[in-house]
Structure formats: C-alpha cells, structure tokens
Specification:
The protein is globular. It folds into 2 domains: about 80 residues, Leucine-rich Repeat Variant; about 150 residues, no CATH class. Helix content is about 35%, strand content about 25%. The chain starts with a helix and ends in a 6-residue tail after the last strand. The protein is of the alpha+beta class. It contains 6 helices and 11 strands.
Amino acid sequence: MEGSEFGELLRRLSSPRAGERLKGMDLISAKAGRAIVRKLDDPRAVPLLIHGLGDSNRRVQRAAARGLRPWLARDPSILDSALAVYATDRFDGSYSHAGLYDIRSGAVWVPRFAAVSGHAALLRDGNTDRFFRFDFFVPGQAPRWIPDATGGAHLVLYVVPEWSYSRQDLIPEFDERRAKANLREQGRYGSAIEEFYARARLPYDVRVHRVFGGGGHHRRRELDVATIHGVTAP
C-alpha cells in the first residue's frame, strides 16, 4: 500500500464517525461467503485491527475481529495481544457468545459483545490449539438441536478426544490409556468453565452439554450433563 493510501486508511480509522471507521476496516479486509479476503496484505494492518477491537461501535469491533482472523491463522501469537482488547474475564449474563479457555493460564475469555457465528471467538479459522472452546447461549437463543432450547440458558463444551491440549499433539487411535487420560483432562477444563459461570451468579439456570468431535466435525452429543444454578434476581 502506498503512503497516501495508508494515510487515507489512518484518516478513516481515526474519524469520530463510526461509519468512516467501518469503511476503514473494509479497506483492510472483506467477507466473501464464509471466507475472509485480505485486501491489505501489510503487517501494519495488525495493530490497527487490534485497536479496532476496542472501538466504541459494535460493527467496527466485529469488522476488526473478522479482519484479524486470517492474520491469526498465519501467526497465532497475535492472539495474546488481541485477547486483552477483544475479550474479558467477566460476564454479566446479557448476551450469547463463543468463548475460550486458556489451558496454560486457566483463564476463561469471553467477547465483550455478542459473538456466536461468523467471527465467533475471534479466530474461527485460526490456530487455537491451546484454547478449549465453548459456546454460551442466553435464554431463548440456543440452537434447535438442544431439547427445550427456548427454556433457560445453555453452555456447550466442545471436546476433541484425539487432541491433547497439554501436549499439543494428536493421540494415536491405539493408545487407549492416553485417550482416557485426555478425556479426564478436558473434563477438568469443562469444570473450570462451569465454575466461571457459577461465580457470575447469573439470574437463570444454565444447562451444560458436551459435543465430541474433531476436525470441525461433531460426532457425538451428551446433553444435560450438568446444571449451573442461577440466583434469584432482586
């Protein structure tokens, strides 16, 4: 990108008008079907996108998250800087979201705004191997495959039996001992996530489900494995 073009980008992104900032984000990347097209293949775009994650306008935040996904696929280390802006370690119970559990630090990260599909968890197309993923649906917003989806909230934990988060490698099919230990390990991750929502003292009950799969293919579902009891709103 030429200096004048980059200057125009900076001008748009620094504008007090959200519409101009959104146009600036569109100069960096665009969505084409389910893929993200990188219109600006320049590393200088990365800090601009990360800064956009903290924008006061939700549409600008989402555009920044979308634009970061292909960069994260190339360099997962960017996530460490992005998460502190994009996500929070608290939840007020008001919106559905896709979250991440960092198996290294034990931190639970949820977006600061509703994010379940498309740019979900910031990095749907990125390398998130150290992060155990989950979805949280507020009452009335759960997917149809969950029985009584309209009643209460739902937490969906995504278990990947063949992937060891702690060792960062695949488990051979014949190694039953490691496979069982791995399921226990991911069970502990799920328990930590449940504790996070229990500490949030939500004004509604949360039903917990597990989805077992790998490579993006869901193979088995265990429904209602636990209930996180909410508190009565004052």
